[in-house]
Fold these 2 entries.
Entry 1:
Amino acid sequence: QVQLVESGGGLVQAGGSLRLSCAAPGRTFSSYVMGWFRQAPGKGREFVAKIIWTVSNTYYADSVKGRFTIARDNDKNTVYLQMNRLKPENTAVYSCTATANYRTINPADFVSWGQGTQVTVSS
């Protein structure tokens, strides 16, 4: 089981930006597809973005295309989620996760989850 640690959440005004980071201390992401999901209170996990680590191919939920960017830093073994033009409805706990299945966006197929980082967007 890969242990993931997210950081970078916080409180931001609508229209602002945040960059989330995800790292696995002592491990590499080279064999994984890494994803970001979010969960608002009382709701299930919602797919946000994923990246195939070895080739840096990326995929996004329609709701975040053009505003969010997922990227990797191989030297730092870190995956990022750059979130621009944030909206109040983007408020949620954002979690980093991993899977060996490059085709899936089903949270049940992702086997490792971080503790999550809270993102709150004010109006």
Note: Residues 99 and 110 are 5 Å apart (CA to CA).
Entry 2:
Amino acid sequence: QVQLVESGGGLVQAGGSLRLSCAASGRTFSSYFIGWFRQAPGKEREFVAGTSRSGGSTVYADSVKGRFTISRDNALNMVYLQMNSLKPEDTAVYYCAAADKAIFVPRGRFEYDYWGQGTQVTVSS
């Protein structure tokens, strides 16, 4: 079992940057694949980025590829999402999630077992 807490959200202007953090509790953090999802008003929760247990494999949604970078530091039980060149359409609540049965980085929300509470990211135009 793992508990996840996101932080780092806020309001930024288009073209700006933010770094989101996901802090995990427990001693088995490195056992989990970690993903970032987001949910905008009126839309369903969508996959943003994911990383393998070691951080060696990463997967990105086409909408953020080249702008966002996911990374993890297992020694600190932390996962990060560096977001650059932000656009108004990136505005959403961002969630980190953990999957414990994956072989490849999961992209589906139902493949993840644990979720954080979310952090709001708002990008103004």
Note: The chain has a mean pLDDT of 96.
